[in-house]
Amino acid sequence: MIDKIKELISEAESFKAQSKDEVEAFRIKYLGKKGLLNDFFAEFKNVANDQKKEFGQTINKLKKTAEDKVNALKAELESTEEVKGIYGDLSRPGGEPVQIGARHPISIVKNQIIDIFSRIGFNVSEGPEIEDDWHNFTALNLPEYHPARDMQDTFFIQTDPDILLRTHTSSVQVRYMENNTPPIRTISPGRVYRNEAISARSHCFFHQLEGLYIDKDVSFADLKQTLQHFTSEMFGKSEIRLRPSYFPFTEPSAEIDVYWGGLETETDYKITKGTGWLEIGGCGMVDPNVLENCKIDSTEYSGFAFGVGIDRIAMLLHQIGDIRLLSENDVRFLEQFKSAL
After folding, report:
1. Tens digit of pLDDT for each residue in 63-120?
2. Taking the model in full, what pTM does it have?
3. Does 251 belong to an annotated binding site?
4. What is the DSSP letter of 21?
5. CATH for 105-340, among 3.40.50.300, 3.30.930.10, 2.60.40.10, 1.10.3720.10?
């Protein structure tokens, strides 16, 4: 009897299985209620006393061998199934092709602008969308009660009037100047918020990209040349004009117009309102007060800043007639931009 059990131990140790069904059949044969082990335990009472110890030890060894084999085979098969699951059944026929997503038009235009300026040495800086009064207004030459604050209808946090949703990414420029020394050459893309009525041409949130260049002997001519390079690369049009304007953080300040031309078509006529010129942003020389607020010596350094609306440029380049389409996440609208990936 003991020799028979030893043969079964060897058989169990060498057993191999290709499926869970084979493992289960092995388990039932050895460990089931009507399995071999139960038969041997039932026979234990008929074994001679001088053989009981060896008989019991051999039965226990068979039981442990069978249990270990079952557990090992199960783990091996499960591991094989997991690896196979990564790719699925490679023998299956091909189904419907996986749909490719489309990059959002805002991301497309933002990346194009970043690429243009990165080629002339500008890095990218980012900052929080929830800002404090100092970085959004005061450091930018807009002290408390300054009338120019009314130019931007602001979303303030009611529990703390010093905290607000940023109205421009100029706040990022302030943070960058506070933590970096000239020369500075950076662009700051991001989402901004203003309490404006929502319509086809305006929204309570939109996207800006602002640029900042500070170094010794920076002039207005440097600003114009930079803008001409940008409009040439972005629109294929390099003729620009700078109209005098007012911004609290730049002096002198100007609006940026690019010559669009093309008054022959109704679309271009609407884009430029019949003038041939299209306004794309604002710019100017950084006010010395802003430099001093950021601990930069205005007697040694000068600089220029500019800002463009990413949404407006996206609408212009892709002929989008309603700004609300940019935030409604309509898949039918977004699928049109697959070719721009």
Report:
1. 888 888 888 888 887 776 655 555 666 676 666 666 777 789 999 999 999 999 999 9
2. 0.67
3. yes
4. H
5. 3.30.930.10
